[in-house]
Amino acid sequence: MFHSALSALTFSAGEFLTITESRGVSGAWSWVFAGGQQIWSPGFYRLLGLVPNATKASYELLLFLVHPEDRHRLPSLADVRQGHVPGETIVRVIRPNGTQRTLSLAMEARFSAEGRPVAVSGTALDVSDREQRVHARHDERRRRAALYQTQHIASFWVGVDRIRELPFEMAQVHGLPFEEICIDPFLMIVPEERTAFRAMAEEHIEQRTLYQATAHERLANGELVHFRIFTIPIWDPDGTYLGRCGLKYPLGAGVLMPAPLRAGFEQSVAGHHLRAARAMLDWSMMDLAQASNLSHSTVRRLEEDSEHRGSRSRLQAVEALRHAGVRFVIMDDGTLAVAKA
Fold first, then answer.
1. How confident is the model at residue 285, as a pLDDT?
2. Which residue in 12, 37, 45, 163 has its CB near the most CB atoms, within 10 A?
3. How many Cα neighbours within 13 Å face the side chain of 281?
4. Would you say residue 60 lies in a domain?
């Protein structure tokens, strides 16, 4: 009895295919050479922007819908009939309505006992979002590279293991091995300032506090540049320490704080900062609680520093104070100051 009940809850391969295809992200097709029969699943039609079964399935139509720049990635009609198909390839398709999607196509040829190709089958998966993220990351890397090459401005990441993620171009601009500056970026600082800067930075990293300082660095072309460098610890919403985000730029350069750095900056606002901000506004704890949509007890925990750094409640309180005209500013010595606009 238990076995029959369990069997009723299992999925067949066809049912599983129906479920995945109904989400619009997958499809399948086949071509039997002997009778020339080609079959596309409803999901494959939808991936191509076609109404299921309203158009005759054909490999020629598939080739036609593939972006002209990507057609060389698919085998020709003659190659398919010979069983020469790629295991997997990625192509863009242009749907009849003009929209574009990126598909990962997997193909498999089937052969008779005599080794003659008799059929080809394939599956398709919509990977448009994945490809867009890949291109976005590539564009971001190029932007960061150009920014450091031309203006010597860089954002960077310091992992929990203290290994730095830096733009590769930083090594080129300073004429130092990239692997070495990822482990010890203080090598870029001139020798007479290096030891003191390293000691200061390592202390803040150990204590997981923000720091800001300036240092002179020599470029590969011999130019001496005075940089401002600051890093801020980053925490996840559960209070787990993730590492540090940093920003480096020549003194006097106008820069915008990257989003991760802004988040870490707000996480660094401590209880005494919140109390000082309330005093400037003549707010009670209850006033801050109402303005930030928090409970009175939550505000009390924030001001007593009993809430972890990554708490969303802290960000809500900071945002409410900012709307009321309070500004949190990093001073030249790295101190976080409170001001009223």
1. 94
2. 45
3. 23
4. yes
Reported confidence tier of residue 256, pLDDT bands at 50, 70, 90: low
Express each pLDDT in 33-60 by its tens digit. 988 899 999 889 999 999 988 889 999 9
DSSP secondary structure letter of residue 66: B
Nearest-5° angle of CA 103, CA 108, CA 113? 170
Number of domain units in the chain: 3
User: What is the rounded average pLDDT of the residues 153-176?
Assistant: 89
Distance CA 254, CA 310 (A): 28
Answer yes or no: pTM beyond 0.90: no
Same domain, 281 and 220: no
Angstrom distance (rounded) from CA 157 to CA 310: 17
Nearest in space to 31 (alpha carbons), one of 113, 142, 117: 117
Percent of the chain with pLDDT over 70: 90
Residue 136 included in any domain = no
Q: Quick check: is 165 in a domain?
A: yes
Domain that holds residue 174: 152-257
Domain boundary among 208, 231, 257: 257
Query: How many Cα atoms sit within 13 Å of 168 on the Cβ side?
Result: 4
What pLDDT, on a 0 to 100 scale, did the predictor assign at position 16? 39
Q: What is the CATH number of the domain that holds 163?
A: 3.30.450.20
99 and 22 fall within a common domain? yes
Please give the mean pLDDT across all residues of the chain.
Answer: 85
The residues, ordered by sequence, that sit 6+ positions from 236 with a Cβ below 8 Å of its Cβ are 242, 310
> Does residue 112 fall inside a structural domain?
yes
